[in-house]
Amino acid sequence: MEKQSLSKNLIYQRKLKGYSQEKLAELSGVTVRTIQRIERGDVNSHMNTLKLLADALEVDIQALLPLENPKEEAIQTKWLLLLHSVPLLGSLIPLVNILIPIFIWIHKREDNPIYDRHGRAVINFQLTITLLFLLGLMGFFIFPLMGEGAGVFFSIVGIYFGAIIFNVVFIVLNIFLVLRSRRMFYPIAIPFLRKPVVAKV
């Protein structure tokens, strides 16, 4: 039953991307024969193989693995939705867009690697957006006092409101990505929180 679930997950994710088995093999480095055997449910796949396939499909490895608890996926999706959507409150309450994701990340990161990855991505993005927002806000006060031209002032206005709009657009986009495939996409982010490097022994 487990092998069947894994095979169905792989077939679903591959067809969702519109990839043939040959295309997936080319992108992942996994042989076509291995992909065929996994999709038929003939083999127990190594985690390294599944990681290569997940990376090629641009999904979290959890999207391929069969879940022991059928409700687990729904629970994960709810937490991820909360993590990605709560920064919208930052438009009303300063720093909520950073503080609540940090709290959720600290609370959930050891439960499952998916929370750690998504949490770091959200926090890094929100810290980057907040930095841009503060630069724009400072420009409102600094440049007029310095007697700079209108062009500089309006460029600062662009940074200020651009950061707000950019933030809202990508919050909404990632809510849809999480609902669809539990993926995420943040195009710019200073890596304030990096993935810890595990030393090889």
Task: Describe the protein in words.
- The chain has helices at 2-17, 21-28, 32-40, 47-57, 72-85, 96-108, 113-146, 150-181.
- It is mostly helical and 201 residues long.
- The chain contains 8 helices and no strands.
- The protein is elongated and about 65 Å long.
- The protein is 68% helix and 0% strand.
- The chain has 2 domains: 2-63, 434 Repressor (Amino-terminal Domain) (Orthogonal Bundle); 72-181, no CATH class.
- α7 (113-146) packs antiparallel against α8 (150-181).
Task: Give the structure's gist in a few sentences.
With 201 residues, the chain is an all-alpha fold. It has helices spanning 2-17, 21-28, 32-40, 47-57, 72-85, 96-108, 113-146, 150-181.
User: Which parts are unreliable, with pLDDT below 50 for 5 consecutive residues or more?
Assistant: none
- Overall mean pLDDT stands at 83
Number of contiguous helices: 8
Q: Work out the number of β strands.
A: 0
Mass-distribution shape: elongated
Name the quaternary structure.
single chain
Structural class: mainly alpha
Task: Return the domain count.
Answer: 2
Q: What is the C-alpha radius of gyration, as a whole number of Å?
A: 21 Å
CA-CA gap between termini: 36 Å
Percent of residues in β-strands: under 5%
- Series of H and E elements: HHHHHHHH
- Largest β-sheet summary: none
- Into which percent range does the helicity of residues fall? 55-70%
List keywords for this structure.
mainly alpha, 201 residues, 434 Repressor (Amino-terminal Domain), 68% helix, 2 domains, 0% strand
